[in-house]
Design a protein that fits this description.
The structure is a homodimer. Helices cover 29% and strands 30% of the residues of chain A. Chain A is α/β, with parallel strands linked by helices. Chain A has a five-stranded mixed β-barrel with strand order 6-9-7-8-12. Chain A has a four-stranded mixed β-sheet with strand order 14-16-18-19, with helices on one face. Chain A binds chain B through residues 18, 291, 293, 302, 304-312, 315, 317, 319, 322-328, 331, 334-335, 337-338, 341, and chain B through 18, 291, 293, 302, 304-312, 315, 317, 319, 322-328, 331, 334-335, 337-338, 341.
């Protein structure tokens, strides 16, 4: 059987400002590789022996960059007329699947997975339960007491390494995160899911019937042009906005977690990018042209601007277009202060 | 009588890189005012009751910017085919003076004088000795034990507040600078001079006859076009290169100093510019567009690039064209590391 990748490209992304902008959010940037994160996501599910052509759900404003970065493949591109969070986006994809029983592998397009083999193995391990109608979420093995992610408490073993989800846990404070790590049996919620299209739509019918109705109406009146599908704007605008976690996963009965340790990162900040990047002997991570003199531990990202630093350590310096941002490493959440303008 | 201003614009200027460049050195930049330092220098000697039209000595490569910044005045512009330091540059100006006994006021074009009245008063005070054939240097009242300037030890009183120069002192180390300040009777050598053209040329004839001969030959074969004079390139290239201090002032007999406290600065570094600039309530000195969040004591100079800083203090950040330079305040001499490339 084949798996249909559903690639979510809805993020607006201010967390890597000034590199990421509403016009070119994080997924369309090459941050860790020659390929953009969107392209890396496509490449991860490109083996035609396992995966069908993907369904991409994207902001209509990004139609051209999606086309350009898809290259020549047969992706179906669903262009959202407005943003309604993940649950409606996935509903559109489930309704677009040609086979109602198609297994959907739902993935954000702006995450990094360095051990793709582990990702594929987890997917294979999850398939039997998914074919039996379960909805599976990928539980990322925590590498520290992160407070920026939701957690999943894992319960009863279901075979093949999968466990029933005992509970979804909101982003915790540090004390709570450390307690979960000490307790074990918790994983990070990475926002990656595997389920049959019909299982998801049935769950929506029970837990979010208005959302399902709006998505169905938007798809029935959709504009179709080649591989592009644009759901009806008015119908989709009427759809309630909610995440798949809140709308479905936390409520449904047959929800399992497949634990996986696959070098995952959501590249959610400049500090996260520093951790991912290759460092030189002075622990500087440099992308672009920079001259560093008596300077260590800096993250430099320079596009078309040359950065020259003397005598400063542990900075984040991002030069892009007509913007330069400078802050100490460890404080990159403060980028929001600037990105909102 | 009138005084002929001689404005020296030969500096290549790397100390305010990346703002100053060989194409547009410091004197042609507006750093402390709407007007450039070159324009401020012209304005300082624009009173037609006291000053004749100036003679500007500039690098031939800067002919157009000199014209543009001179505006409509009747400046004679001497375009040096190559750089030979200040003594030959002033020799060209002395030879270009229509009256051999003209009093020349020689000034660098990249210094700041905030108390112009004090400057004028010192000039008036120096005139009697100058008319009697003395050469006068302006002795800047020291405001601290600077190690970046040469010093003048002042000797015998000559009337009108002037004193004979006892000795020129090279740039001292800190201990020596502090000792001179404690001793008193020392001033900074600001590179500003007042003398009759013929007095200077006579001193050259005695102490630097080859230089005088080369300058005379270059002027005899000069190309003259409107107000522009271009000395002969081969003849001027053969001229020994030397500063007026070494070639003449340290050797001549009748050399006086006029002490003056006139808010002088050579704006010789980004740190010096920070001291001169207006600061906001958080002690940030900002030129251009910047957003500063939890950031104090920074010098920001941004041309066409917006600078956003969070959580950093006491930095120098200069964004210009396609260059961004960042270093801690107090270390701006290190700019040379970058400017040379």
């Amino acid at each position: 059987m084949t798996i249909v990748p559903v690639i979510l490209s809805g993020g607006g992304g201010t967390r890597l400002w000034p590199l990421s902008t509403p016009i070119r959010p994080k997924q369309f940037l090459a941050l860790t590789d020659d390929r953009t994160m969107f392209q890396l996501t496509l490449d991860r599910v490109s083996d035609a022996n396992v995966f069908a052509a993907p369904i991409v759900v994207a902001n209509a404003a990004h139609a051209d960059v999606v086309d350009a970065q898809c290259g020549n493949n047969d992706a179906v591109v669903l262009l959202e007329p407005c943003a309604r969070n993940t649950a409606p986006a996935i509903a559109l994809a489930a309704l677009a699947a040609t086979d109602p029983k198609a297994v959907l592998l739902v993935m954000p397009s702006d995450h990094i997975i360095t051990d793709v083999a582990a990702f594929h193995a987890a997917t294979v391990a999850a398939l039997p339960l998914v074919e039996a109608g379960w909805m599976v979420t990928y539980g990322i093995t925590p590498t520290g007491p992160e407070t920026g992610y939701g957690y999943i408490q894992m319960g009863e073993a279901l075979g093949g390494g999968l466990q029933k989800v005992a509970r979804f846990v909101e982003k915790p404070d540090l004390v709570r995160a450390e307690a979960m790590l000490a307790e074990g049996n918790h994983s990070w919620n990475g926002g990656i899911f595997l389920f049959r299209a019909d299982a998801y739509l049935e769950a929506l019918a029970i837990y979010a019937p208005e959302m399902l109705a709006a998505a169905q109406k938007a798809m029935a009146a959709a504009n179709r042009e080649g591989n592009r599908i644009t759901p009806d704007a008015d119908a989709f605008a009427a759809c309630p906005s909610d995440s798949i976690d809140y709308a479905v996963m936390e409520k449904a009965e047959r929800v399992a977690v497949v634990p996986v340790n696959m070098g995952w990162s959501d590249v959610g900040s400049w500090d996260a990018l520093y951790d991912l990047n290759t460092k030189d002997a002075a622990a500087n991570a440099v992308t672009g042209t920079a001259r560093l003199d008596a300077a260590t531990g800096n993250l430099i990202h320079a596009d078309g601007i040359r950065v020259s630093i003397h005598g400063l350590d542990d900075l984040i310096v991002v030069a892009n277009g007509r913007e330069v941002m400078i802050m100490p490493r460890g404080s990159s959440q403060n980028v929001r202060t600037f990105a909102k303008d």
